[in-house]
Amino acid sequence: MSRLSHSEVHMVHRIGWLRAAVLGANDGLVSTASLVVGVAAAGSARPEILIAGLAGLVAGAMSMAAGEYVSVSSQTDAEQADIARETRELRETPEAELDELTRNYVARGLDESLARQVATQLTEKDALGAHSRDELGIPETVTAHPIQAALVSAATFAVGAVVPLIIAVLAPAAQITLFVAITTLAALAVLGGLGASAGGAGIFKGAMRVTFWGALAMAATAGVGMLFGVVA
């Protein structure tokens, strides 16, 4: 009975949207909070801080969307080019492709007769799928989706960027830097933990690594803000 009810959920199925979501939200938090902290540390008033933060949100979301779309599109183009070439080779030289698939399975540990049998059966069922998966290394579960990655990155960036802006609105004017920094570090810890948990990694490690880099980014921009604030 346990065999019949057994099912597995693999983390690799989530890798496309998970990568874009975590990267987008993390970047939105860190970049916008760092911008707010830097401008506030320079002695700017609340309206200037909010304008800078809102501009950073819009520009960052668009940049993330464009960057993810271009990056993933390039990956997709490469995959499609390889698949097109494999399709042509399967049509023009099927025996050579069968031999190639057989050698692939022999290299993985099967004896030659069994490898030939496996290659033949998989070719009869779905030749292109077998070659794409076992020769080119392009499994269907991780095929790139440019539009999905772009939309997820832009949306999650905006969600992450909203957090420091809300704090900048609500915090006392003289303590915007402190409130934004503390809230952002807490949000980064939660985000890192959730991302690590969704990906099957350690929660503490995931939380600590994003918190460290977020703190470093805010410290650097605060230093820049204080330097120019003093000069001004």
Write the layout of secondary structure elements.
Layout: H1 2-5, H2 15-41, H3 46-92, H4 94-107, H5 112-134, H6 146-170, H7 176-198, H8 203-231
Helix pairs in contact: 2-3, 2-6, 2-7, 2-8, 3-4, 3-5, 3-6, 4-5, 6-7, 7-8
Q: DSSP strand (E) fraction?
A: under 5%
Shape: elongated
The Cα radius of gyration reads 25 Å
Q: Which secondary-structure class do the elements indicate?
A: mainly alpha
Mean pLDDT: 82
Q: How much helicity do the residues have?
A: over 70%
Give an overview of the whole structure.
With 232 residues, the chain is mostly helical. It has one domain (2-231). It is 83% helix and 0% strand. It is built from eight helices and no strands. Helix 2 packs antiparallel against helix 3 (46-92). It is elongated. 33% of the residues are buried. The model is unreliable at 1-13 (pLDDT under 50).
Which key terms come to mind for this protein?
elongated, disordered N terminus, mainly alpha, 232 residues, single chain
Summarize the structure.
With 232 residues, the chain is mostly helical.
